[in-house]
Description:
Helix content is 30%, strand content 21%. By secondary structure, the protein is α/β, with parallel strands linked by helices.
Amino acid sequence: xxxxxxxxxxxxxxxxxxxxxxxxxxxxxxxxxxxxxxxxxxxxxxxxxxxxxxxxxxxxxxxxxxxxxxxxxxxxxxxxxxxxxxxxxxxxxxxxxxxxxxxxxxxxxxxxxxxxxxxxxxxxxxxxxxxxxxxxxxxxxxxxxxxxxxxxxxxxxxxxxxxxxxxxxxxxxxxxxxxxxxxxxxxxxxxxxxxxxxxxxxxxxxxxxxxxxxxxxxxxxxxxxxxxxxxxxxxxxxxxxxxxxxxxxxxxxxxxx
Length: 257
């Protein structure tokens, strides 16, 4: 899809229903292009048989082009047009059977983030990957969300979680953090031409203020500790000491050597 970079988006086009529709706007298209370029190397080294994406299903095919996983399924609880119609907090999927799970702008729009993350941990195979893509609250995007979240307009609705808070949750579940990609430093304005003119500001933020990125892309792996038996100290103790004192009686007796 091509856009006129000098033409601002119309007001009536801003009333969108889903985050996937927002990614079709000029601002969303620019952000998605940068997201794909940063995420391609991660997905190109991901192998396996099964992957599922929860959230932004229309963008899954383009996003997963370099992925080496053979079979991919899109999941949603409110749509019959996707591959799997199920609640993300109650996945009808066998444990330890999925190689890759992608949560794209879903945790910020659910009331059960912990339950969804527990299900993701359950269905992933050991060393399987979990990729979380969501907006960064510590940014100009988060600042606009702070003032406009009450309007319930995409993409400023929902709850934005910091990367640090997400990592704390993942450590408790048993995930290991592999990468933290910071994507997008353009201002959250719906005018592609103005964004292009402010490219110098984008480069400065990327170099000097990298934490102000629009998106946080967090890559985790499921960590399974090996079941190694631990011996108690009393088992390893010797029954006899190394040196035994000779009896005090009969010091002049001769012993066989």
